[in-house]
Structure formats: C-alpha cells, structure tokens
Amino acid sequence: MRWFPLLLAFFLASEAHSASLRDSRLEETLNQVATESSEGTPRAINDNITDMGFEAQGDELINRLSVDAAYAERMQEDPLLIRTQLQASVCTDLRFRRLLDMGATLTYHFIIKGSDQPVLTQSFIAEHCQTM
Question: Is the pLDDT of residue 16 over 90?
C-alpha cells in the first residue's frame, strides 16, 4: 500500500509532462503556420476582404482580415450567416481540422480597412466541427 502514493505521483507527473510537451508542440506548430500563411500579406481575398495575415498566441491561431465599411455593415447585420460560412470553411479544410484536433482555437478577427475598428470576431474549436 505504501507504493500506491508513489505510483500515483509518478503517473500524475508523467501526464503533466506529456500535456506540457503537447502544448509546446502545438504552439510551435501554430507559430510555423502563422509565419508561412502570412507570406505575401496583405493580400486581397476579394473586392471586400483583405487578408492581413496570421498570428499565433498560445494555442490560438488568429487570422486578421480587413473589410470595407459597406461590407462590415452587411457582416454585422447577419453575424450568424458569417459564422456559418466561416465554420463550413474551417471544418472542411483538412489543415485547419488537424490544428483544431491538436487543441488549437482558430479565430477570425475582422476590422474596417484603414483602421483598427473591430467588426466581428469568430472563434472555432474542434467540437464546432463535430456537427458537420
């Protein structure tokens, strides 16, 4: 019986170490993805949206996008439609799905072109793709 606490402590410490390695590997991967995905930014996605690049913060990958004022108004009129479109895009992209399955959060942050004024922010985790 006196070995039980020692074994328990060993397993808890080894599990914490594994989690730490997973977190570290995820952060490293997200930093690499952000760097590679930001090459050539800013770049126009279409007439209304400009991709300003990606940034990694801990376990979150943030895509910053700027939109013209008229498009920003349309986005704010129906944020559920925007979320649904983004979710479909994220969940059908195998690269993003792998990151989500690793524990990442993928965030889209929209601002008005030429300013820092926020329009809409949407975040996704792996569970959001289970319904698709």
Answer: no
